Amino acid sequence: MTYVTAGKEYARDSRYLTTRITADGRDGFPVEPGRYRLVVSRACPWASRAVVVRRLLGLEEALPMAVAGPVHDERSWTFDLDPGGRDPVLGIERLQEAYLARDPGYDRGITVPAVVDVPTGKVVTNDFARITIDMSLEWTAFHRPGAPELYPAALRPEIDAVNEVVYADVNNGVYRAGFAGSQEAYDAAYARLFARLDELSDRLARSRYLVGDTITEADVRLFTTLVRFDAVYHGHFKCNRRKLTEMPVLWAYARDLFQTPGFGDTVHFGHIKQHYYRVHSDINPTGIVPAGPDLSGWLAPHEREVLGGRPFGDGTAPGPVAPGERVPAVVP
């Protein structure tokens, strides 16, 4: 598979299926517990946002999850982790089948996360930025008792503003560096990435969380990039001014979130490394997956409590991870 176009900067295809699942069903898809299936890969940072938010809000029973394997080919993500290589609910081998059921002429990316309507087997949406917001705003009838407010009305303008620059320069910025097809494109992406990380570090030196004094959607979005930084982005994507572990404020912030129920207990470092180093064959043609980095530091004390803040606001932490959704511990 080819991800780099020689002489060109990387441009993400952002043509998503934007149909929404809402409480009033105005797009034809009302919120109904058990009707939909959230398809993810734990390797993917965009899908990992949905996994974290779903767990924080307690939507595990209302919105069941299918986990695709960490690698894919030109056609699609596959369900090779399931017996017989088929999702046990949708009965399909490839996520592509659900996209083609929605649109036989579908010619865009077969991406995760995707929400599939189980009765029809059709993808409803793969609009990853909207999926997590709608989990917060449209699925409220099925939130667990004590679920946090991840997108509070009073803070939405600030959350949106933070999310916009974090997406452009960090979430997508690492890809713009890693998939750059020219030195100039790489240099520009690298500079933007680290300038923004420096700004975020300054902000987080004064505040435990990005917006307000509780975890919000903004923290979820930054976390899923930071948790992959040393494992894949630093080396594989050449984002190597410093490792995350060499950026004291961001490293402590990331550890704080990782050790918060709902974050680190959704992260599968094995899947992350398998995906990036095996799938991106044009920038890692040997397919060799590095043995490192050492993950034990993720459990080291972060001392961010001195900044105050209440992770879940007036809510509570989610309970234990469901047995079928557990990930390997970073330190066995």
From TrEMBL:
<dbReference type="InterPro" id="IPR036282">
    <property type="entry name" value="Glutathione-S-Trfase_C_sf"/>
</dbReference>
<dbReference type="InterPro" id="IPR036249">
    <property type="entry name" value="Thioredoxin-like_sf"/>
</dbReference>
<dbReference type="InterPro" id="IPR040079">
    <property type="entry name" value="Glutathione_S-Trfase"/>
</dbReference>
<dbReference type="InterPro" id="IPR047047">
    <property type="entry name" value="GST_Omega-like_C"/>
</dbReference>
<feature type="region of interest" description="Disordered">
    <location>
        <begin position="309"/>
        <end position="332"/>
    </location>
</feature>
<feature type="domain" description="GST C-terminal">
    <location>
        <begin position="126"/>
        <end position="279"/>
    </location>
</feature>
<dbReference type="InterPro" id="IPR016639">
    <property type="entry name" value="GST_Omega/GSH"/>
</dbReference>
<dbReference type="InterPro" id="IPR010987">
    <property type="entry name" value="Glutathione-S-Trfase_C-like"/>
</dbReference>
<protein>
    <submittedName>
        <fullName>Glutathione S-transferase C-terminal domain-containing protein</fullName>
    </submittedName>
</protein>
<dbReference type="Pfam" id="PF13410">
    <property type="entry name" value="GST_C_2"/>
</dbReference>
